């Protein structure tokens, strides 16, 4: 049809990309043991696979000389929601019940040459940039009596007081911009290098790396002063901050 | 726009019921339409403090369970006609309340009143949780004693996590009502000072009510102190607190040392729940 200037404007096509999560199952030899493990998983958490799209990777199984027919029927018998296969070319599935399933493997040779050069897409996508693990926790309100803040992965910073009857437990150090009147337990992961800092000292209990102390054993001179607690030679040392 | 206020404390005997009745009466005297709701099912007191104990036919539990209509259970005060009471049931326990039931009662009260004041039971169990659940504002009643302050701190933590407003990420106003403040003992360092309490709890102050025989007398007579003896310092403290709740700026006065009479020394320390 010739393109006519007077033709009614066509709606603009919106083409969007979206990623979906699906599970990938790769049967591996010995297949009997693998299927037993799968059955065990299905029994323990039956709902885990329900309505979850599953892609079957047959590369390993095929290399090991598994019979595709058998694998296909064994997987189908388990009622899994299989949407695609990968790891082998489509013609290898010809004759099995999965012949019609989309093959997710990249096949540059099948692509139409769009008048330019082909862009090679590697089979294994580049590893996603790793997100650095969160190593600190910031709490910007008072920690009230009866509340506990537990953060094993690093330091805890609190802007506000930690009340009597409250507790803060950290893998690393604890920093309190306010009064410490409750418990502070530091160094769950960092060990003896962790410290406890606070603007106003008045703790019910402090502990670093399992070594704890209560107000009975420290001088009242530290009360209501800015202080830090460290572990030195297995003994807790409380010192005022200048 | 109606406001649901929970009067709470964690600890018992600090003056929640007295504060609920007195603040409710003071707001009503200021021309607001007020209902005070007793959530202390099984240990009700608010009806006594308001002098309505002989007029309770239906109560909160009856309404929550659908056995009575709200209009049947509301008791209108005989002295201030904009003040109403919804009493608790004395013969039941806290399990008689359900969250859905309480919500529907509060929603219905919102259509009728400017202020819904929920008198919470002591503790942190179901009754106290339901009293605070649908509140917009909290009045935390605290005595200047370490045990009371710590319990209030615990309750403030729960107000910030267990109320519907907090769960929706909305701001939750909290006010501190410091009651049974004894200037003589504070001066001697025998009880916490106002600043100490404020530093620990870190919420704005709504008022300071001195320990006073007027409060006890008023409770015993079944008449909130703001109605019984409006000239007393306790009544003024509650009236000023009500004005602050209404958004007025009123300077807070710390009760000064005054010579206590014999009666005050004898009865001043008795618990008024």
Automatic annotation (TrEMBL), chain A:
Ranges for domain Septum formation inhibitor MinC C-terminal: 139-238
Superkingdom to which the source organism belongs: Bacteria
Cited InterPro entries: CAP/MinC_C, MinC, MinC_C_sf, Septum_form_inhib_MinC_C
GO biological process: cell morphogenesis; division septum assembly; regulation of cell septum assembly
Keyword entries, A-Z: Cell cycle, Cell division, Septation
Family: Belongs to the MinC family.
Function of the protein: Cell division inhibitor that blocks the formation of polar Z ring septums. Rapidly oscillates between the poles of the cell to destabilize FtsZ filaments that have formed before they mature into polar Z rings. Prevents FtsZ polymerization.
Subunit structure: Interacts with MinD and FtsZ.
Identification of the protein by name: Probable septum site-determining protein MinC
UniProt source species: Acidocella aromatica
Lineage: Bacteria, Pseudomonadati, Pseudomonadota, Alphaproteobacteria, Acetobacterales
Encoding gene, per UniProt annotation: minC
UniProtKB/TrEMBL annotation, chain B:
Keywords: ATP-binding, Cell cycle, Cell division, Nucleotide-binding, Septation
Positions annotated to bind ATP: 11-18
Pfam families in alphabetical order: ParA (PF10609)
Presence of keyword Cell division: yes
Single GO term (MF): ATP binding
GO cellular component, one term: cytoplasmic side of plasma membrane
BP GO terms, sorted: division septum assembly; negative regulation of cell division
Sequence similarity: Belongs to the ParA family. MinD subfamily.
NCBIfam families hit by this protein: minD_bact (TIGR01968)
Reported function: ATPase required for the correct placement of the division site. Cell division inhibitors MinC and MinD act in concert to form an inhibitor capable of blocking formation of the polar Z ring septums. Rapidly oscillates between the poles of the cell to destabilize FtsZ filaments that have formed before they mature into polar Z rings.
PANTHER family: SEPTUM SITE-DETERMINING PROTEIN MIND HOMOLOG, CHLOROPLASTIC (PTHR43384:SF6), SEPTUM SITE-DETERMINING PROTEIN MIND HOMOLOG, CHLOROPLASTIC-RELATED (PTHR43384)
Subunit structure: Interacts with MinC and FtsZ.
Record-given protein name: Septum site-determining protein MinD
